[in-house]
Amino acid sequence: MFGIISFNSFAQGFLKTEGKKIVNEKGENVLLRGFGLGGWMLQEGYMLKINKEAQQYRIRERIEELMGARQTQEFYDAWLNNHTRKIDIDSLKAWGFNSIRLPMHYNLYTLPVDKEPVAGKNTWLEKGFALTDSLLSWCKANNMYLILDLHAAPGGQGNDLNIADRDPSKPSLWDSEANQQKTIALWIKLAERYKNEPNIGAYDILNEPNWGFQNLQEDKNGTKEKLNAPLKKLMVDITAAIRRVDQKHIIIIEGNGWGNNYNGIFPVWDKNMVLSYHKYWNYNDQSSIAHIIKAREEQNVPVWLGETGENSNVWFTDAISLLEKNNIGWSWWPLKKIGFNNPMEIKSNLNYNSVVKYMNEGGNKPKESNVYSGLMELATYVKLENTIIHRDVIDVMIRQPFSNETKPFKSNIVKNNTIINAVDYDLGKNGYAYFDVDTADYHVSTGKRSAGNRGRIYRNDGVDILKDSLQYEKYYVSSTEKGEWLQYTVSVEKKGNYTLKLNTASNQSDGKISVSVDGQIVAKNISVPNNGNAKVFVPFEIKNVPLKAGKQVIRIITDAGGYNFNYIQFLK
């Protein structure tokens, strides 16, 4: 295991490559632990719950159709101002992360080719550079590295349209020399601006190219591409342009097929270069990274996992453990969205939900005033202090890859009438804080999607959680299966025999549970009442459960599943 440097002081200077390692100016190994700011400069529809015509330009056009250009601009200005602020970067640093990947949309920095007043000349826009300057200043204040990632290149670099906000009716990056020259010019402009900034960790020059150069009809995303000649040429040209003004910064390259197809790309052409790859929904074993480890060995260059995430806590912990054992830094995706499997969940609202429904399904057009209200409320909810902070996600990324220790999810002081919600089981790994049978989505490896938390709400473990439709902000554990269990670390005020009142709902007759305290079974194979309705909760009692004063660990064990579980109440 490689040592990881301290980021308390920023004497480390520019990052650079040294063989297969990324190091600072002292030659110390640097393991990047970071987040990508997806959804800020570039909205992908799924982050907004929009799944039809979900490129940003189409989302914006459709919003304009609903409430006009002026109010649409007001929304996008508020979105850019609120989505990422100093408080976000301060928080990431406090949580234990040391780097940021900025997915840049070119249209915040320069005009599209077809909008240029003079063909072949570049108009530079201050907005993108100002946003980047602000982000860099916040990273500097926190001794963090900022990696610039061209996420949406002029014309768009792939057939996965939403990623690069590509309009397929216009020439792509690969179909247009003008788009390629604008891409190169943008990198020159960025390099000139940031060449003396040691907090800029690297230039990630082209995100997730996915284009079938040899056979576009049958291999539209370039996963089977053998030569990748246009991709290599453009990356070599970008590198040469950057090096004319900046010799210091690392240049990161990505293969075709969403970053993983490096056929025809090697050998590397720069002495300060890092290979990026992206990893989603596959197993977290050594074979899953064998291709990139092989490339690292053969090319004698470092590897960085530039994008991964969108899975369960179990998957996150296993992936980070695997990566760090192999000295591979990482950047998770994304920091925030309308969705639960990231540190910050953006809350929706009723008016915005109507906009989403209209965009996805059609039907009655929502009122202009409601569209405006819903979107501006969403732009307020995107602020960190208005999001739902998922501390379980942070814990599984920073602490759990290196510890089997469990911690209480909330402070559980047990006295007479104390209630602990079922969903507030301990923080920790599967098999230590809880045990669930279905824990993550491995569909790239298995060909079959699995859910993890099937309710996709409240927490991101394998435990299935649903929202109680009859009570505001109340949740319960569902889809219980034989052998699963939940652990609660409690602190008991007074020793004694307690009655445990479990609030459950079931329309089956075979649900059974056992209870253990500090590893000892104190109630075995207790039948869960069948009240005929899986959504109407009725408490039942388990009497004479001995609890000593102080800390102890209680487990609720499913001997036979099919019931829903809402809370435990302690009665003295």
Describe, in short, the structure shown.
With 572 residues, the chain is an alpha/beta fold.
Strand order across the largest sheet = 3-4-5-6-7-8-9-10
Tell me the domain tally: 2
Shape: globular
Extract low-pLDDT stretches: 1-11
CATH class of the largest domain: Alpha Beta
Structural class: alpha/beta
Helix proportion: 25-40%
Distance between the termini: 50 Å
**Biggest β-sheet description:** 8 strands, parallel, barrel
CATH architecture of the largest domain: Alpha-Beta Barrel
CATH superfamily of the largest domain: Glycosidases
- At CATH level 3, the topology of the largest domain is TIM Barrel
Radius of gyration equals 26 Å
Number of E strands: 25
The number of helical segments is 13
Mean pLDDT across the residues is: 96
What is the beta-strand fraction?
15-25%
Pfam families: CBM_6, Cellulase
Domain CBM6: 447-571
Family: Belongs to the glycosyl hydrolase 5 (cellulase A) family.
Keywords: Carbohydrate metabolism, Cellulose degradation, Glycosidase, Hydrolase, Polysaccharide degradation
